[in-house]
Design brief:
The chain is α/β, with parallel strands linked by helices and 277 residues long. The protein has eleven helices and ten strands. The relative contact order is 0.12. It has helices spanning 10-24, 33-46, 52-61, 63-73, 84-101, 118-133, 148-156, 162-170, 172-178, 190-193, 227-238; strands at residues 106-112, 138-145, 158-159, 179-181, 186-188, 196-200, 213-218, 241-249, 262-266, 269-272. It has a seven-stranded mixed sheet with strand order 6-2-1-7-8-10-9, with helices on one face. The chain has two domains: 10-73, Chemotaxis Receptor Methyltransferase Cher, domain 1 (Orthogonal Bundle), CATH 1.10.155.10; 84-272, Vaccinia Virus protein VP39 (Rossmann fold, 3-Layer(aba) Sandwich), CATH 3.40.50.150. It binds S-adenosylmethionine (SAM).
Length: 277
């Protein structure tokens, strides 16, 4: 196996961090070098490269390599029904109020930075339960992420291991009802999949279609951006939201010190008060 040169000078590290920022917006300081090196070294070996200067040249000349790079530098940790509080909020407060105010309208939901799709499918399970109580309730979910590798998992709708175990523990009835197991993987039921579309999207760009989302889950991704990046992303997202639409952020995220067009509602939950346009 080819050895990657051990000492990597500061200029080369900075050039790699700059590529991370350029392609994802993720802000990596020098203390993240060990993490980045740990993620990229195997890729260099696969490409038979022994140093990062050569890798940077490949990155500059190959769009395919940029895709691999994005897959490697992003952190894709997620789980079904992550942060129980927000799912309780959706069930007890958001869905009844939205349904009462929007008879016959389809709820448009965006799982932004969806990773492998557990968040989008959790939302779909909850909405299916609501639909069973209120048959006129309809919904659509768009799941997006910058990394193709994780989107492919979401599109496949097949899960196994830790995340399935987590769902089994937290909501066993949901696992039973909305998945079927083929012995190795648990596959999401077609009745859920039909409501969800996954596609690649960089949060630093606006969505191409002028969608008007009523609910956006933008969780555990702002933490990777610097303040200016967070403001850019939040404004892009806001412009895709209906007036009064709800934004939910991750457990360790807050918009407190950021300039945005969102109003605080309760912890992790914000509302778009301005007209989108
Ligand atoms: C930690 S996961 C969060 C997944 C899910 N939202 C959750 O809370 O469980 C962060 C995701 O953000 C994605 N991401 C990072 N930068 C992005 C960008 N500029 N645009 C879109 N997605 C991005 C990563 O690929 C990763 O899948």
């Amino acid at each position: 196996m080819l050895a990657i040169e051990a000492a990597v000078d500061m200029d080369t590290r900075r050039a790699l961090f700059a590529q991370v920022r350029r392609h994802t917006g993720i802000d990596m300081a020098d203390r993240k070098w060990t993490l980045l090196h740990g993620r990229l070294r195997r890729r260099l070996q696969t490409l038979s490269l022994s140093n990062y200067s050569d890798y940077l040249a490949v990155l500059d000349s190959s769009a395919d390599e940029v895709g691999h790079f994005i897959d490697l530098v992003t952190t894709n940790e997620t789980s079904f029904f992550r942060t129980p509080r927000i799912w309780n909020y959706l069930w007890q407060e958001f869905l009844p109020a939205w349904h009462a105010a929007h008879a016959g309208v389809t709820l448009q939901v965006w799982s932004a930075a969806a990773s492998t799709g557990e968040e989008a499918y959790s939302a779909a399970m909850l909405f299916e339960e609501f639909h069973q109580k209120h048959p006129d309730f309809k919904y659509r979910i768009l799941g997006t992420d910058i990394a193709q590798r994780v989107l492919d998992v979401g599109c496949s709708g097949k899960y196994f291991g830790r995340n399935v175990e987590g769902l089994k523990k937290a909501r066993p009835a949901m696992l039973e009802k909305y998945f079927c197991s083929d012995g190795t993987a648990c596959a999401v039921a077609p009745s859920l999949r039909t409501h969800i579309t996954f596609r690649r999207h960089n949060l630093y760009q606006g969505l191409v279609d002028p969608a008007c989302f009523d609910l956006v889950l933008l969780r555990n991704v702002l933490i990777y951006f610097d303040r200016a990046g967070q403001e850019t992303v939040l404004e892009n997202v806001r412009l895709s939201m209906a007036t009064g639409a709800v934004l939910i952020v991750g457990e360790s995220e807050s918009l407190n010190r950021i300039r945005t067009g969102f109003n605080y509602q309760q912890p992790l939950i914000y509302q778009n008060e301005r007209t989108a346009a």
